[in-house]
Every structure is written in C-alpha cells, then in structure tokens.
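Progress note, sequence design subtask.
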C-alpha cells in the first residue's frame, strides 16, 4: 500500500494525475480536465500548458489535448546517456559563454534524436530548454550530423520505404554535411529557430551523440557561422577526449 507523502505538492500531484488521464483516457478539453481534477478551469489550463511545454501533451486542431511524445512509447537509445550528460554539460556551458546562444546535447533514438541536456542562453530572446523532447533525426541539426557519420547503408536501412522521407535528397544533404563537418536546421522543426549541429564520436568512430547550437532565426548571420562552428567543434573535441579517457 502506498501512503501519500506528508509534504505532498498539490500542483505536482495534479500535473501527474493529468498526464496519467491523458495517457489512459485520451483527448480531453480544458473543462474536462478541470472537472476530472476538481480544480478551476484556469488552473487546468495552466497545467495543460506546462504539459504541452514539456511534450507530455499536445493540442489538436479541435482544441482538445492529447498525449504528447513523452507519454507515447519511446525508441530506445544505445548511447551512454548518463556519461554523455556528465561530460557534456560543462562543455555546453562553455559553448554558451563563447557564443551567447543556447546549446544542446542530443542522442540518437531510432529515427529521432532525444535532447538529454540543454544550457540556455542568457539573452531575453532565446531558444529554451529542450530536455526530454525528441525531433526527427533527418530534420534536426544534431540528427543530420549523426546520420552523416553513419555508413550510407545504415541510413538506407533506416529510411528505405519511408514515404515521409525523400531518401535521395537526404543522401545529398548528408554528403554536404560530411564535407562541411556540420549540419544546419533552418526552421525545419520549428518556425523562427535555426540550429547548427556536429556529431560526437566514440573511440571507434561511431556517432554517439551531437552538440547543437540553437538560436532565433532573426539572429542567424552567415558571417558568424565560422565562429559558431569553431566553438561547437571545440566543445565536441573536448567531449570526445573526455570519453576516450574513461575506461
């Protein structure tokens, strides 16, 4: 039998209950959520907004809320997530200090990349925390950098027969990423957001993760691209060296 904690936080409890309701019962309106939780409509709206922000929920065209990506079965990742986060976070902080923009660490998970660490920019207009979220690998900058580091046969095996992906076009784009050493996501996953990504490789040369720099598209300046790429490359190199030193 489970007893309620003596110092229970009602807001946390309500958010967890609401996430479970979405997963178990499916789409609901704000008023439905308020009734099920026994809270005011305004409170239910704030709870749902936070669940949407963290990808526990999403809102459809009919204004009803549904389970988000976090509540759906997730693709497994073979990356050493805890170790990558431990070694990567200090480098993300340094990257943010050097560039003034938000930095992320992502790992591959099936056809997606999952954000495992974020350090936000201090600027008022900035890209926010993405931890826990997933994006299509063939669109995200970090995902494209990881795909470009894989053998072409592996990429074909993943996307062959996928009607949503133009495989010949993706191959051409990945070839460009390999030549440049970095990938760019220009508003493919979110309007107004541009990101630059570079793969983090293990000692065997296989891609384990990627570091990305994300910024508002309004601040993206191609004249600054070499400096941003240099800063990302330095962060990636230090993470790879730290990985190599670990048993």
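Output:
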């Amino acid at each position: 039998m489970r007893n309620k904690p003596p110092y229970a936080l009602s807001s946390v409890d309500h958010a967890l209950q609401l996430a479970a309701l979405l997963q178990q019962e499916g789409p609901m309106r704000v008023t439905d959520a308020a009734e099920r939780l026994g809270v005011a409509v305004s409170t239910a709206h704030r709870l749902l907004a936070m669940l949407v922000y963290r990808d526990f929920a999403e809102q459809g065209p009919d204004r009803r809320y549904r389970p988000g990506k976090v509540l759906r079965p997730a693709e497994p990742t073979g990356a050493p997530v805890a170790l990558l986060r431990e070694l990567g976070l200090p480098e993300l902080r340094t990257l943010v200090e050097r560039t003034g923009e938000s930095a992320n660490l992502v790992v591959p998970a099936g056809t997606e990349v999952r954000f495992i660490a974020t350090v936000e920019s201090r600027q008022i207009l900035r890209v926010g925390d993405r931890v826990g979220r997933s994006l299509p690998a063939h669109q995200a900058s970090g995902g494209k950098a990881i795909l470009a580091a894989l053998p072409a046969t592996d990429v074909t095996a993943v996307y062959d027969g996928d009607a949503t992906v133009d495989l010949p076009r993706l191959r051409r784009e990945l070839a460009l990423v390999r030549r440049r050493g970095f990938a760019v996501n220009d508003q493919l996953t979110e309007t107004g957001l541009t990101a630059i990504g570079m793969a983090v490789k293990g000692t065997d040369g296989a891609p384990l993760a990627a570091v990305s720099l994300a910024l508002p598209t309004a601040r993206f300046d191609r004249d600054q691209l070499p400096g941003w790429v240099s800063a990302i490359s330095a962060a990636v190199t230090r993470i790879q060296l730290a990985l190599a030193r670990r048993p």
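The domain at 10-71 is CATH 1.10.10.10 (Arc Repressor Mutant, subunit A). Work on this subtask will continue into the next period as scheduled.
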